[in-house]
Amino acid sequence: MADPTRPGPLRAARRRTAAILHHLTRHPRIAALVKRLAPRSVRTRTTLAACASVAVVLLVASAAVLLLLRANLERTVETGAREQAQAIARLATDDHLTAQLPLDHGTDFIQVTDADGKVIAASQNLAGHPALAPTNTHDGHSTYNLGALGDEHHQRVTTVTTDTPTGPVTIHVGASLRTADTAEDLTTAALAALSAVLLLTVGALTWRATGRALRPVEAIRAEVAAIGDRDLDRRVPEPRSDDEIARLAHTMNAMLDRLEAAGARQRRFIADASHELRSPLAVLRTQLEVALTHPDPGVRTDLVAGALQDTERLQSLAADLLLLARLDATGHDRPDELVDLTELVHTTVHARGPQPHPVSLHTPDEITLVGNRLWLGRLLTNLLDNAQRHARHRVTVRLSTDGATGRAVLDVSNDGLRIDPADRERIFERFTRLDDARSRDDGGTGLGLPIARDIATIHGGTLTVQDTSDGTTFRARLSVVVPGAVPPRP
């Protein structure tokens, strides 16, 4: 009895093969060769995968067809041989058996032996030959040495034992499998030829279809590779089909649109910042040079005071530029600090001290949101500075909650001149000043409203301007925290 713990020969062979492959792949030269020969393109890998899949299916299907064909042919031959053996058995039972027996179509030989193994009847081709003896027995089927027939080929030997008036006899009928072998060979050749043609067809069609499918991808890759930092106006070709590649091209073009817009905005910002910095620096240098050479102490004092004002303006402009850089770097990452907006509005308004125009404040009991307290205070400060510059008599700050959307609404209104509808978006561009506010003497840098809008956007809100019956209102909508809810994190 075999030891169940001992691995079988097939498993042992698999382990040896795996060990050899592992040893070969660890060899540097062989590993490099395998890596070099491995297909790298998607087109080649797809074609090989399709051919391999079809080859496996064809191999399994061909093996099944050949097995069924072989079994059917052998069953037919065996049935004919058994019918002839049964016919001879009836002759032996009726004691009509002759020494020489005729062969039917498809039968190679007939031999009848008695209980002592003596040949008592046979076909003509076995006349005078001793009794056939099995040379091997496997799975219940005996193999006979048929070299005496002078014609080596596969045969199916059917053995039948019957009783006769003179005692039991054994009848051996050998049926030729030549027809079955020929049919199997022809079928194998036909299946091999058809499989080869089918594999070549599948490989060619897959190679062509994959090439056509990947051609737009290659065009997109080539176009993206050719786009430099100065060619952001170029776009990748979009296929006419409505598939994944077309959507990829559309997404790439949308990304290029955003990059072009960001590049243009950055270049415009740098140009505007250079212009804004150049003017106060030039004035500051002129004032200092004059103060250095002027003999009148009183004039020098005035010049130094003017230089100090320009220095403060430069400091304010630099702080605004740094804040814009931080806001641009923050992007869509929303701060996660819990802020009491009502208390922040009260603190910011009252901390400003005396103002050119009185501020009327209207706030509810409590509105809480998630954000950055410093930035939200800067948003309100910028809106108040803008309102104070353009108001005639009063400024109004109103904080409320929009019942439809559940957002906090911060309105900063002034009773000054209304803004032309064509300028309501332009005022949020950086370094933009309208005609009635171009003077730099009022302290404006042209960055207050853009900073306020960026802060509102980072907090998941919006900042818009609209006309009211008595002036202009800047409205910021911000997301609030539901009572009892956990503050969301970015």
Main attributes of the structure:
490 residues; alpha+beta; Helix Hairpins; 18% strand; disordered N terminus; disordered C terminus
What does this structure look like?
With 490 residues, the protein is an alpha+beta fold. The chain folds into 3 domains: 31-226, no CATH class; 230-329, Helix Hairpins (Orthogonal Bundle), CATH 1.10.287; 331-479, Heat Shock Protein 90 (2-Layer Sandwich), CATH 3.30.565.10. The protein contains 9 helices and 14 strands. Strand 13 (462-468) and strand 14 form a beta hairpin. The radius of gyration is 50 Å and the shape is rod-shaped. It starts with 8 loop residues before the first helix and ends in an 11-residue tail after the last strand.
List the helices and strands and how they pair.
Elements: H1 9-26, H2 28-37, H3 42-93, E1 100-101, E2 107-114, E3 119-123, E4 134-138, E5 141-144, E6 155-164, E7 167-176, H4 178-226, H5 244-293, H6 297-330, E8 337-340, H7 341-351, E9 359-362, E10 368-371, H8 373-390, E11 395-401, E12 407-414, H9 448-458, E13 462-468, E14 471-479
Parallel strand pairs: 1-3, 9-11
Antiparallel strand pairs: 2-3, 2-7, 4-5, 6-7, 8-10, 11-12, 12-14, 13-14
Helix pairs in contact: 3-4, 5-6, 6-9, 7-8, 8-9
